[in-house]
Write a structure and sequence with these properties.
The structure holds two protein chains of two kinds. By secondary structure, chain A is an alpha/beta fold. Chain A has eleven helices and 14 strands. The termini of chain A are far apart. The chains are: A alpha/beta, B alpha/beta. The interface between A and B is large, with 46 and 48 residues.
Chain lengths: 331, 333
């Protein structure tokens, strides 16, 4: 199978959907000729024109609001939010308007829009261009949240997001844009709410999101060499969450870690860990451990930044303790 | 286009409909206020009384395909855009037959069948939505126009300047209608708004107009002109409508001497009332007699009271509906 980058996968997904459905348009800062700073959208304006690939002023709440209104009136907008950190700027339009319109109108109005944005630290971009803020939107009923961990998922989830009749926020890890993965030439969609078991194992379940899936897979490889068999699960969407696949795995392995790049406190890792504890407690042989980003603003200095996010070594070390039942204080 | 003078002779039905719609709004609000005062309505609400000529003058220039976005003070827009009393009162009381199945309440009534994209409880929150609806119309080659209603208080929100900029850049068919009732919640607008509101729109190259918001004919004539121009791609436009809210910020805002005087309220109610003044004009012009207008008012009053009784007796939604409508259904794959 051919291999393409995550960036190319996103581009293909949007182009294919825009060819299929003329009501889809895309708007955001520097999306047309510039193709975004990450060049993810390069070539789209040449095919679809500036009517459908719309460069906006630097007015995130404004164009987010426009997208909500357009979605309520027959269009299917894709909003490009250049950095996930700018979510704070669009919160009212996204969370008070887009997320609630269908419910508040008793189902009369719908807001079929996609907000694509990014996440991920270690790009030396400091505290306002490095955050992973998916927990914020996952907390708001009415928003679906997708977190692809590969080019393959990025394409399939984006196509599903565009066809969904509810607002969907899709987070791409900005460090993975150039990562290649096998992606079929033929069309495919990845349904929401279906986790992928990316590696089977029997001793511990590692649930990872986005780039933390790669971290979990690397840890599983290390552990395998030591005779520890780790199962790696990628929820792919955190709203809706495929709880059953995770619980089935934990009932088998009796141990679990959840690895996610959001801040560890009050985050997605806490939510998933809590569900495991509530619903599979009697199958557990060890505490369910969260691993998230440190609860500090992301620092600029590489020496500091690198220690704020979970690493394969860290995950493997913790998994070793959990599997061997060694007493250890969990930080 | 017919001149205002011609219209007076030929558009009797239009005039009487405008009068009736204003009376319907007033009647709806009088009943809503009573529901609040008698503790029959959950929560609270914001009265539109006094501002009827704004909603009616503008909405009478629109078709059902045209869109509006509304505000926390939204009953007037909702009625003027074609909504029925029964579903509105049911919504105010949280009943299953309400426009939003009781999930929105007073501050979120949406009536999509008449192009009302919904009231909004965030001040200025619908400015993006209205502008986006206009963008949608333009992209899809439709000719519908969107009117964005908001108050003077909302002009302090940054969102407005962002979306006006885009609306002007892209020549969107949107009309920003600012109902300047002189008060930003509990504060005089003079204390929160620097400079002139029309100048703010003009700074973006948007044609801006001021009109007496108590004069339904003046409002309607301007709205007809601007809607027709917006349909031809000559928008966006801004209108500042000088008006007055008879009640407090909300129904519970009873003692308001600290921010405005009773004398001021009396002057507006007695001298500037849009319904009284338009009624007087109708009789003066021989379009309707005072008896005919009285009959019309009585009929509306009876309608409103019947709708209130209906809504009070109507069922609440079944509790199984609490988690319905969180997400929109997707077509079967």
């Amino acid at each position: 199978m051919r291999e393409i980058t995550l960036s190319k996968a996103v581009n293909e997904a949007i182009a294919e959907e825009m060819r299929r459905d003329p009501s889809i348009f895309l708007m955001g800062e520097d999306v047309a000729e510039a193709g975004t700073p990450f060049k993810v959208l390069s070539g789209l304006v040449e095919e679809f024109g500036t009517e459908r690939i719309i460069d906006t002023p630097i007015s995130e709440p404004g164009f987010m609001g426009l997208a909500v209104g357009a979605a309520m009136t027959g269009s299917r907008p894709i909003v490009d939010l250049m950095f996930g950190d700018f979510l704070f700027l669009v919160m009212d339009q996204l969370c008070n308007q887009a997320a609630k319109t269908h419910y508040m109108s008793g189902g009369k109005l719908s807001v079929p829009l996609v907000l694509r944005t990014n996440m991920g630290a270690t790009r030396r971009s400091a505290a306002q261009h490095s955050q992973s803020l998916h927990a914020l939107v996952a907390h708001i009923p009415g928003l679906k949240v997708a977190m692809p961990s590969s080019a393959y998922e990025a394409k399939g989830l984006m196509k599903t997001a565009i066809r969904d009749n509810s607002p969907v926020v899709i987070f791409e890890d900005k460090l993975m844009y150039n990562d290649k993965a096998p992606v079929p030439e033929e069309e495919y969609l990845i349904p929401f709410g279906e986790a992928a078991v990316l590696r089977e194992g029997s001793d511990i379940t590692l649930v990872g999101t986005s780039s933390m899936v790669q971290v979990a897979l690397a840890a599983a490889e290390t552990l395998a060499a030591e005779g520890i068999s780790a199962e790696v699960i990628d929820p792919r969407t955190i709203v809706p969450l495929d709880e059953e696949t995770i619980l089935t795995s934990v009932r088998k392995t009796s141990r679990a870690m959840v690895i996610d790049e959001g801040h560890q406190s009050y985050g997605v890792s806490a939510e998933i860990a809590s569900r495991i504890t509530e619903k599979a407690f009697y199958y557990l042989d060890a505490p369910v451990v969260r691993m998230g980003a440190m609860d500090v603003p992301v620092p600029f200095s590489p020496a500091l930044e690198d220690i704020t996010v979970p690493t394969a070594e860290g995950v493997a070390a913790m998994a070793r303790h959990l599997v061997r039942g060694e007493a250890r204080d969990v930080a | 286009m017919a001149t205002a003078k011609n219209k007076r002779k030929t558009n009797t039905e239009d005039y009487l409909r405008m009068y009736r719609q204003m009376v319907r709004i007033r009647s709806f609000e009088d009943n809503a206020n009573q529901l609040y005062l008698s503790a029959k309505m959950p929560g609270l609400t914001h009265m539109y009384s006094g501002e009827e000529a704004v909603a009616v003058g503008i909405c009478e220039a629109l078709t059902d395909d045209d869109k509006i976005t509304s505000t926390h003070r939204g009953h007037g827009h909702c009625v003027a855009k074609g909504a029925e009393f029964k579903q509105m009162f049911c919504e105010l009381l949280g009943k299953a037959e309400g426009y939003c199945r009781g999930k929105g309440g007073s501050m979120h009534i949406a009536d999509q069948s008449h192009g009302n994209l919904g009231a909004n409880a965030i001040v200025g929150g619908s400015m993006g939505i209205a502008t986006g609806a206009a963008l949608s119309a333009k992209l899809q080659g439709r000719t519908d126009v969107t009117v964005c209603f908001f108050g003077d208080g909302a002009t302090a929100q940054g969102l407005w300047y962002e979306v006006m900029n885009m609306a002007a850049l892209w020549k969107l068919p949107v009309i920003y209608a600012c109902e300047n009732n002189g008060y930003s919640e509990y504060t005089k607008t003079d204390e929160i708004a620097a400079g002139s509101l029309t100048a703010r729109a003009e700074a973006f190259g948007i044609e801006a107009f001021e009109v007496d918001g108590q004069d339904v004919l003046a409002v309607n004539e301007l709205a007809q002109t601007l809607v027709a121009r917006a349909r031809k791609g000559e928008g966006p436009f801004f209108i500042e409508l000088k008006t007055y809210r008879y009640h407090g910020h909300h129904v519970g805002d009873i003692n308001r001497d600290y921010y405005r005087s009773k004398e001021e309220e009396t002057i507006w109610k007695e001298q500037r009332d849009p319904i009284i003044n338009f009624g007087a004009w109708l009789t003066r012009e021989g379009i309707a007699s005072e008896e005919e207008l009285q009959e019309l008012r009585d009929a509306v009053k009876a309608d409103a009271e019947a709708a209130v009784s209906y809504a009070l007796a109507a069922d609440y939604p079944d509790i199984s509906e609490v988690d319905m409508h969180v997400f929109a259904p997707n077509d079967a794959a």
